[in-house]
Amino acid sequence: MSDTQPADAADAAGTRAPNPAELPITFAAFHDLHAQRYTDYAFAHLPDESIVRELVDDVFVALAERWNRVLAQPSPAAYAWALLRRVVEAECARRDEHLALIEEAAFAYALIERGKRVLELVDGSMVDDLGVGISVARAIQDLPGRQHDVVVLRFLACYEPAQIADVMGIEDVTVRSLVSQARTRLQARLAPRRTVEPGRSPDDEE
Asked: With contact defined as beta carbons under 8 Å apart, do 137 and 111 qualify?
């Protein structure tokens, strides 16, 4: 839909999202269903609201411009999700090392404040220390593709499996399988840190 123009005026936050009134009803419905989910996912990786809103708007502008092609895909939701992931990954890669370290800490703080359930995947403990939070954040960031996505959406954004399946264009059973696979990977990477309690040596164990 190359003749589609963005909204004439940005909203209070300066977004450039397409005007739903100028687009097919199918696109407007897709936007209304997934915009907040896309924003939550991007915000987990890029804790700068203005950048996140601009990034998500860019994704929807791109989808609007090729909406007929999107609808022709076997799974329009999966096609759109792949585009969002590429845009988020590209923005993360663009950041310099200093900013990346700040954002890693921000991700860890988000984990501590909003994602304590993540560590339950490992051993039922809670994240209550920034150092531990950063370790968990790094482990989550290192999860492969869809495992990473479902952990972020399920345990940070707090979406239900059915909602995750919907936005990613996959089946509910696939979401549950990916959570299980992620749990195994996180346990393998993080469980060893719980083997010895801080301040105690193995000789103290009975």
From this structure: yes
Q: Is the pTM of this model over 0.85?
A: no
At 118-175, the pLDDT tens digits run 655 555 554 455 556 667 777 888 899 999 999 889 888 889 999 999 999 999 999 9
Tens digit of pLDDT for each residue in 175-195? Answer: 999 999 998 888 888 765 444
Nearest alpha-carbon partner for 152 in 117, 125, 124 = 117
Q: What φ, ψ does residue 6 adopt, rounded to 5°? A: -65, 170
Cα separation, 163 vs 195, whole angstroms: 36
Which amino acid is residue 181, in one-letter code? Answer: Q
Cα distances (angstroms) measured from residue 7 to each of 16, 50, 58, 60, 73: 7, 18, 13, 12, 26
- What's the rounded Cα separation, in Å, for the pair 158 and 114? 9
At 187, list the tokens. Answer: 């346990």
What is the DSSP code string of 35-56? HHHHHHHHHHH---HHHHHHHH
